[in-house]
Amino acid sequence: MKLAMAVLLLLFLTVLSHSEADQAFDVRQHLSTVSRYGAVKDIADNSFVPTGIPDGCTGIHLNLVARHGTRSPTKRRMRELDRLAARIQELLRDAKQHSLSSKKVPAWLWQWESPWKGKLKGGELISKGEDELYDLGIRIRERSPDLFDEEYHPDVYTIKATQVPRASASAVAFGMGLFRERGSLGPGRHRAFAVIIESCASDIMLRFYDCCVNYKDFRKNQEPAVEKLKEPIFDEIASALQKRYELNFQSQDISSLWFLCKQEASLLDTTDQACGLFSPSEVVLLEWTDDVGFFILKGYGNSLNYQMGVPLLEDILQSMEQAIKAKEENQAPGSYEKARLRFAHAETVVPFSCLLGLFLEGSEFEQIQKEEPLDLPPKPPQKRNWRGSTVAPFGGNNMLVLYSCPANSSGKYFVQVLHNEHPIPMPGCNGADFCPFEVFKERVVVPHMKHDYHALCKAKLEQPVQKPATSKLILLFRWLFSLGNDDTSQRQRVEL
């Protein structure tokens, strides 16, 4: 009797622990670059202890590179969801014809249609995205009050955005938060401010990827191989869902359902429909396939991905040197720039993070400085630094704050780098987040300055530039097919 009770107690505790683990799992933190800022911004490396700003140091300039806030799906992806609705009805009819049990089919599937059905336009900043950037503006002013104590002037607080409306709308939302109660417009005492926008055709500062012919060729050539990499995991999950729900899901269905899961969870806070079809372990693997895809096409997977961002890095260095010059010459307040604020896309933020050497493992910083190929992010359950939900969620950002520290014996000027508002270690600064300006310049910036944007992007590159990524794709492709009965995966294109 005692033995039977002990067995029952053990079973109960096992079920309870699994239930608690599932409840603790928040799918909104595992949506790769479709993650909403508020869900992931405070996920940081707990093992890293920030340096802290020494007494006597004051901020004299701030650079911000931010992705636009949460947006609606593009027109092309909305049409994909319409096709998914038709496909679901086809699967349900097929199940009825074969007299399969309908008890296993989730109830929501029977009446589901796309939340964006009939919508003619897409890709715009939604209200959640407006809130993300508005609140970010408020927090940045609260964090650095000395930098934002001047009367607004467009030469003091420079705001730039790409020509894409969701980026410029994000700049406006941010500015409304930053300059809240600093004007006389309406009950909120808002004020007008300028947003500088460059034509897409010539914007090599924030849309360098769009003006780089060689990069577009590389991406076009590699995208089919990247999609092919995902198929074994899609197939594994399709097989698992067939057994789970007795519906004849195929690989492409998994891709579309994963996309729906991300849109529902991020934009609508709906986590019990498409996302509920997948187990937590399947979600984590689907997230990983997204992360591997943008690692190869936008991140460390090919050095051209980030080398073409050199004009942006040069602009940031120039802004810091101008701020130092103004400080050294005791220029009058209001006569020099104190912040340069930029609003763009994941394709901007990700390469810029790579130029800074963020999210690397071990000795990888030395590898990228030698322009050697990096290993792909490790597959779950192994831990990895490279996660889209952290690197470039909606509203994701990098801030570089320049400090004047006149009493410091190791230098008068320092740079602090923050990612998603949290100090982050820089391998080029010996793993510190607070780095002497000259060290930052020589170890982080200068190694990239040997590259000329126009030479990289317009002159035809030799074929070996593409070999590292291609060879790694082939190796991963072979490895994935050898997984046997593992778990999961997904698909993605379009500009983020």
UniProtKB/TrEMBL annotation:
One of its GO terms (cellular component) is plasma membrane. It is an enzyme of class 3 (hydrolase). SUPFAM superfamilies: Phosphoglycerate mutase-like. Residues 1-19 form the signal peptide. One of its GO terms (molecular function) is bisphosphoglycerate 3-phosphatase activity. It is found in: Cell membrane. Disulfide bonds join C57-C405, C261-C275, C429-C435. Its EC number is 3.1.3.62, 3.1.3.80. Keywords: Cell membrane, Disulfide bond, Glycoprotein, Hydrolase, Membrane, Signal. The keyword Glycoprotein applies. Its main location: membrane. CDD domains: HP_HAP_like (cd07061). InterPro entries: His_Pase_clade-2, His_PPase_superfam, Histidine_acid_Pase_euk. It holds the Pfam family His_Phos_2. It catalyses: (2R)-2,3-bisphosphoglycerate + H2O = (2R)-2-phosphoglycerate + phosphate; 1D-myo-inositol 1,2,4,5,6-pentakisphosphate + H2O = 1D-myo-inositol 1,2,5,6-tetrakisphosphate + phosphate; 1D-myo-inositol hexakisphosphate + H2O = 1D-myo-inositol 1,2,4,5,6-pentakisphosphate + phosphate; 1D-myo-inositol 1,2,5,6-tetrakisphosphate + H2O = 1D-myo-inositol 1,2,6-trisphosphate + phosphate. Belongs to the histidine acid phosphatase family. MINPP1 subfamily. This is Multiple inositol polyphosphate phosphatase 1. It comes from Rubroshorea leprosula. The lineage of its organism: Eukaryota, Viridiplantae, Streptophyta, Embryophyta, Tracheophyta.
